[in-house]
Write a structure and sequence with these properties.
globular, Rossmann fold, 46% helix
C-alpha cells in the first residue's frame, strides 16, 4: 500500500478522491434509471416482468413472482445448517441491541390547561431490497428487517432478483424467514425499487425502502425519495483504522483488507503516528493479498482508494479521521476509549484489537447499514427510529389560549398571514 505523509494537501487530495465514489457522481446513468421508473410507474407488472426478462433472463409472471413456502423450505434444505444456527444467534443479538433504541410516546399536561406530547407509531409497510447473484448477503437481510420488526412495522416485504431459473439465493430466503419477512418477491434492480415506491398489481406500495444495491438501485432510491422514504443512498464500503505504535500490524492489515475485498471502489485507509507501523502494515498487506481469494478486486481497490497516512501526532490523525467521517472506524491505540472521546464523525466505531470490523458486519448487534462517503457527518446507522413516525400532540384550554392569543395574533400579522391571526382572534371576540 502507498505510504503518504499526512498534511493539508494530501488530506484534501484524499477527500477529493474518495468523493468520486459517491452515487451522486454517476449522473450518466440517471436517464436510464428514470426511464425504468417511469415505465414501471405507468405499466406496473407488465414493465416489471419485461425488465426482469431483459436483465435477469427470467420469465416472471403474476403467478410465480411471490416466493412460496415450499421455496423457503427448499432454501433451508440448501443452506448449511451451521449457517442457519449462526444467523439465528446473530438475529437474537441484533434484536436485543435494537430493542434498546425503542422510545415511548409521551404527554405532558400543565396546570394552566396546556397539554403537549408526542405520539410514536410505526410505519405500516416497509420494503427491503436485497441484491442477488454474487452480491447476496444474508447478513444484510437481518440488518434491514429486524429494526423494522422491533419498531412494530406490521408488514415487511422484500424484493430480490431471481436467477435465470427463477430461483432466489437460498441463504437470502432463510435469513428473510428467520427475520420475519412477510412477503418476498422476485424482482431486482431499479425496476424493483420503482415497484415498491409506486406499487404494481403484484407488489404493494411501501412507506419506506431500505437495503443496498448497485449504482442503478442507488440512483433509483434517490429518484423515488419523496414518493417514499429511504434509508440512504449508499456508496461503496470503507474502513479507516486509527492506530499508534502499539497496534499489531498483522491485525491492521487484515482489517483493511476485510473491506477492500468488497469491490474495486471500496476504500481502506490507515492513519497512524508510527512510520514503523505503516511500513510493517504495508508488508503484511502484500503478503495477505497473495493468499486471499478476491485478490484482483483487492488490488484494484487498494490501488485506487487504499492509503496509509503517517501523521506527526495523534491529534492530527484524529482531525483527519473526523474529516473523512468513515463508515467503519477502528481505533487501535494505547487507550482506544480515550481516543474515541475525540471522534465526532463515524458510522460505527470498533475499539481495541479484538473488535475487528466483521464483528459488526455479522454478529455483535449494532446495525451494519451505515453512512458512507463522509455522510457520517450528518447521518446515522439504520435504526428503530427509521421505521417510526413521530406526531406532535397539542391541546390548549380556553384559559391557556387566552393568555397567549395576542402574542400569536401579533406574530401572524407581522408575517402578513391575517387568516392565521383571525383563526385565533375569533375565539375571543
Amino acid at each position: 500500500m502507498r505510504i503518504v505523509e499526512l498534511n493539508s494537501k494530501t488530506r484534501n487530495n484524499l477527500l477529493e478522491n474518495l468523493l468520486k465514489r459517491s452515487p451522486n457522481s454517476y449522473g450518466q446513468y440517471e436517464q436510464t434509471v428514470n426511464e425504468i421508473i417511469e415505465r414501471v410507474r405507468r405499466q406496473k407488472d407488465a414493465a416489471l416482468f419485461e425488465y426482469t426478462m431483459k436483465f435477469d433472463h427470467c420469465r416472471i409472471t403474476a403467478d410465480n413472482i411471490r416466493v412460496t413456502r415450499d421455496e423457503i423450505r427448499e432454501a433451508y434444505e440448501n443452506t448449511d445448517p451451521a449457517l442457519i444456527e449462526v444467523m439465528k444467534k446473530s438475529a437474537a443479538n441484533i434484536t436485543r441491541f435494537h430493542e434498546k433504541q425503542l422510545h415511548n410516546s409521551w404527554i405532558s399536561p400543565e396546570s394552566d390547561g396546556t397539554i403537549l406530547g408526542q405520539r410514536i407509531t410505526p410505519i405500516e409497510i416497509s420494503g427491503v431490497y436485497v441484491p442477488g447473484g454474487k452480491a447476496a448477503y444474508p447478513s444484510s437481510v437481518l440488518m434491514n428487517v429486524l429494526p423494522a420488526k422491533v419498531a412494530g412495522v406490521s408488514r415487511i416485504i422484500m424484493t430480490t432478483p431471481p436467477d435465470a431459473e427463477g430461483k432466489v439465493n437460498p441463504g437470502t430466503l432463510a435469513a428473510a424467514d428467520i427475520a420475519g419477512v412477510d412477503e418476498i418477491y422476485k424482482a431486482g434492480g431499479a425496476q424493483a425499487i420503482a415497484a415498491m415506491a409506486f406499487g404494481t398489481e403484484s407488489i404493494p406500495r411501501v412507506d419506506k425502502i431500505t437495503g443496498p444495491g448497485n449504482i442503478f438501485v442507488a440512483l433509483a432510491k434517490k429518484a423515488c425519495f419523496g414518493y417514499v422514504s429511504i434509508d440512504s443512498i449508499a456508496g461503496p464500503s470503507e474502513i479507516l483504522v486509527l492506530a499508534d505504535e502499539t497496534a499489531n500490524p498483522r491485525y491492521v492489515a487484515a482489517d483493511l483488507l476485510s473491506q477492500a475485498e468488497h469491490d474495486e471502489m471500496a476504500s481502506a485507509i490507515l492513519i497512524t503516528t508510527s512510520r514503523e507501523l505503516a511500513e510493517k502494515v504495508s508488508e503484511q498487506v502484500d503478503r495477505f493479498v497473495l493468499e486471499l481469494s478476491r485478490k484482483e478486486i483487492i488490488e484494484k481497490s487498494l490501488e485506487a482508494y487504499g492509503y496509509i497516512l503517517v501523521a506527526s501526532h495523534m491529534d492530527e490523525a484524529i482531525d483527519a479521521a473526523n474529516e473523512i467521517a468513515s463508515e467503519h472506524l477502528e481505533i487501535l491505540t494505547r487507550n482506544p476509549f480515550e481516543t474515541m472521546t475525540k471522534i465526532k464523525n463515524a458510522g460505527a466505531i470498533f475499539l481495541g484489537e479484538y473488535s475487528s470490523e466483521p464483528l459488526g458486519d455479522y454478529y455483535a448487534g449494532p446495525n451494519h447499514i451505515l453512512p458512507t462517503n463522509g455522510t457520517a457527518r450528518f447521518f446515522s446507522p439504520l435504526n428503530v427510529d427509521d421505521f417510526v413516525k413521530k406526531t406532535s400532540i397539542i391541546s390548549y384550554s380556553q384559559d391557556a389560549l387566552k393568555k397567549a392569543h395576542k402574542d400569536i395574533e401579533l406574530f401572524a400579522e407581522k408575517e402578513g398571514l391575517t387568516a392565521h391571526a383571525n383563526s385565533i382572534k375569533v375565539r375571543f371576540e
